[in-house]
Amino acid sequence: MKPTASIKRDDRIKVLSNTLAAAQILHSYCQANLAALQQMAYLGIWYSAATIHQEAKILSSNPVPPKGEIEKFRIRKLFHEVSRDAAKAVVDAAAIVFAHSVLDATIHRLCCATAEFGPGEWADEIEQKQISFHEMRSAPIEEIQKNLIRTYLEKLERESLLRKCDVLLRVLKPRSTRGVLTGFRYSRPRLAELDKLRHDAVHKLYFHRKCRQPRAKLEYLFKTGELFLNLVCKHLNIQPLMDKAERQRMEKIGSDPEMLRRFSAGIVAPPA
Q1: What distance in Å separates the CA atoms of residue 19 and residue 222, rounded to the nearest whole number?
Q2: The pTM is what?
Q3: Kind and range of the H or E element at 172?
């Protein structure tokens, strides 16, 4: 029979493995759902263009078009041409805002997971925090550390994506981020550009501005999430494995938009 400490550690590893798998699956579901959203929006733009083309063929086939129909067609065509680029810009901006939110939530989940499994590695982040003399006398050091880390993570959740990434990298202390994800290289300046793009779209109402290479930007955000997932798994030497029951539960959440939204918001509890 295994010692109690070993059983407890095995249970913690299982919980962490489930947590990492849940983060990985949720990250993938969000990426797939976002791609579907974009495709549906682009399909709408294409359908609008196809409708205009079909109307033009019908009008041109009529030697004497009905009175006013040509003028109405010209107005619809003009409206389509004016709104087409704006509609695509809005869809692309919304996609980037959403992908940024997914990455932000993923990084924070990884921060919480590493803090739960290895609180000692977060000591440098809280060493300057102050506590009352009463707290110091009434609680063991492990509990004080746990409470300080929890408070720190609650505050970190409200801070920027870049700040979260910086903190997690400080805690993980990887020798390098190269080679962690094949074909991808992490760049903080690149991430800062995308962070500013999201900020301008939301806070400066720049969502109507045309975005260059939106697919590449979205891929970079999601690849960044994959990179940090791999970094955490490598650091903790744990694979994001999930037992059959939990995987079925996550698949149910992923197939239900409302449950997926609630899970993302933390309303539906993650696997435990």
Answers
A1: 18
A2: 0.74
A3: helix 161-172
